[in-house]
Amino acid sequence: MRKRPQISPTLLAVLFLAPSAIGLLVFRLGPIVWSFALSFYDWRIFDTPVWAGLDNYVHILNSPIAGRVFLNTLWFAMLYVPGSVGIALVLAVLLNNSLRSSAFFRGSFFLPYITSTVAVTLAWRWIFSTRFGLLNNLLKGLGWSDPPAWLADPAWALPSVAIVSIWKDCGFYMLLLLAGLQTVDPTFHEAAKIDGAGPLKRFWQITVPLISRSLFFVLILALVRSTQTFEITYALTGGGPNRASTTLAYYVYENAFVHFDMGYASALAYLLCIAVGLVTLVNFHFRRRWVHE
Amino acid sequence: MKRSSPFAALVLVAVSGQVLAQETVLRYMSWDPAQLEIEGPAIEEFETAHNVTVETQALPPDDYWPRLSALAAAGDLPDVFAMSSGFVAEWAEAGNLANLGEQMEGVDLNAYYGAAIEAGMVDGEPYAFPQNWVAPVLYYNKDAFDAAGVDYPSDDWTWDDFLNAAKALTIDENGDGEPEQWGYYFYGRYAHTDGWIFRNGGRLINAEETALEPTQEAVNALEFLVGLVSEHTVAPQPQSLEGVRQQDVFPLGMAAMWVDGTWNIDNTRQVAGDSFAWGIAPIPMGPDATPETAVTYAWADMMSIAETSEQKDLAWQFIQHMVGEGRTPADFPGGKVPAYKAIAETESWLEEGLQPDNKGLILELGAQPTYTGFSKNWSAWRGYAAAGSGGMNGEIDEVLNGRKSLDEAIDAFVAYGNDVLSR
């Protein structure tokens, strides 16, 4: 009998990894490196790239808009990260039991995360509509004669985007935290209970420290996602009114695919990348102070 | 079952290869899927007459431009593609568009609207050929005018006439301070405000198109418009109607007058149905303008040939077919005016029996001096599409919503505009 040709395990591993690795290289890592190079070019997609040195970065620093967009991104993160993680934590703790109804509520809270973003955002747009919206008619019914123009008032537009984003994502974070909560040994709680610790004390002294690793992961995830908000902004406010809800990811899209200024958009994307990287580094630095390994 | 011989298969492959090699394929891309469907029979006719296959693709504008730009970057532009008055200069300067001068030598340009032909010229050379053109007009609700006892807008209406009509047409039936019918509706959108500026003889950008320098006539026009909301309260603050599609405000009867492009005739027909009678009129000429300086805001949708196309003559024949004799008035329903006069100036295009009953007015506008207002980076400084909440659009809305003075807004949009124009 003829002996089958032998493939070395290394080659086999490379072959199996190749489809994902090539995809990652071509569609992720390649563009990441390429866009860094592009940030030093003046390139309208349909034109020839022209070397521009640091011009794009200088333009961003001198732009009358870019500073506001950076601040909007920061403000959004400040609303979104504590909002989504806080609500997710409360929901996870409330639903961390074996009651039958809990499964239903877990599913219900997770549902927004898997529904079409644009579709649900359009529904929210009707809810927020100034004159004919559900929310304002409800508020009027409760006696607020002049409720805000949620999506057209600069003070409310970004918080409105944050509300929808929190509503959409907190179910996902809840699920991650629930997984963490399931690993907490109930005997800790029982012992604390016997020692007379109340529910709040047990939550802060036992639950939070024991799920701190999950919490840290969710926090980093929420932070990164807060800088990537795009679809909801696009469908809800279009970045308005007058830039009040334009965050960096949206501004990158606008410059790349509306104005086709790829060099400028790449430079913006890299500044965003640096900002997120720095915040993540700071988080990792403080990690050992509160995360129990 | 009998197995076919390898030889027969080889012959078949060779023959079909020969056939494929002989087939001429012309690639055509458009930004209007609905329009491409209408164009189907005309394209088939061209295919039969020239024994070619036309490969078509249509994407809505938000997807069309990124896709077309990517194809340009890859050196793979279709032979023929739709081109906007707003982008033709940048695309020609980037070397993507074929100069049509040679092909156009034998064409009787008088058969087309002059302003539409002009829209495809870059530095005196033609880089796009017009298919149809559009212009903002004043839509008015005839039933509301009749009920208020106001005469319909006429060609010699002044801005005072317009204001008086708007006052009479603003009706707060239940006295809650929020009129059920506003006299007029607009916001900072280009199609809502720029027509007023140009009809007052104003300009937003300098002649070289290098910097935003709003003229006094432009500022006066903006002041007049802002006054409609803040002083005369005949138009709503835009934020109060957030959530209602802008193109539905007039057809839903929430405002008795509205200025927008003729392309919205279709939507107005669909949404308003038979609920009220309506007509269209020119935007009234401003007090600072003379008939010579009061230009009509209008622009053309065009077709271009890729500089990289290897069949430019065939592509030109296709364009000629698609903009001229190969088309019928029924191919241009609603407010898109065929650039080819022989199709536009027909009873059939006027669509008798449908509203508005005076579509001929649009043809009159096409005979007047027109101005497109476009420049490099227009979408950014003007605030258009996904950038519609920013630029001049966003700043004017801040004024209309009572959060900024007009002077502050002008300073802000000029600073931003000059920043993007300097890139």
Automatic annotation (TrEMBL), chain A:
Positions of transmembrane segments: 12-34, 74-95, 107-128, 203-224, 267-286
Keywords, comma-separated and alphabetical: Cell membrane, Membrane, Transmembrane, Transmembrane helix, Transport
Record keyword Transport present: yes
Domain of life: Bacteria
SUPFAM superfamilies, A to Z: MetI-like (SSF161098)
ABC transmembrane type-1 domain mapped to chain residues: 70-283
Topology versus the membrane: Multi-pass membrane protein
Compartments (UniProt record): Cell membrane
Main localisation: membrane
Family to which this protein belongs: Belongs to the binding-protein-dependent transport system permease family.
PANTHER family: ABC TRANSPORTER PERMEASE PROTEIN, INNER MEMBRANE ABC TRANSPORTER PERMEASE PROTEIN YCJO
Record-given protein name: Sugar ABC transporter permease
Species classification: Bacteria, Pseudomonadati, Pseudomonadota, Alphaproteobacteria, Hyphomicrobiales
Automatic annotation (TrEMBL), chain B:
Keywords: Periplasm, Signal, Transport
Secretion signal span: 1-21
InterPro entries recorded: Bact_solute-bd_prot1, SBP
Compartments in which it is found: Periplasm
Recorded family membership: Belongs to the bacterial solute-binding protein 1 family.
Assembly mode: The complex is composed of two ATP-binding proteins (UgpC), two transmembrane proteins (UgpA and UgpE) and a solute-binding protein (UgpB).
Protein name: sn-glycerol-3-phosphate-binding periplasmic protein UgpB
Protein's organism: Devosia nitrariae
Lineage of the species this protein comes from: Bacteria, Pseudomonadati, Pseudomonadota, Alphaproteobacteria, Hyphomicrobiales
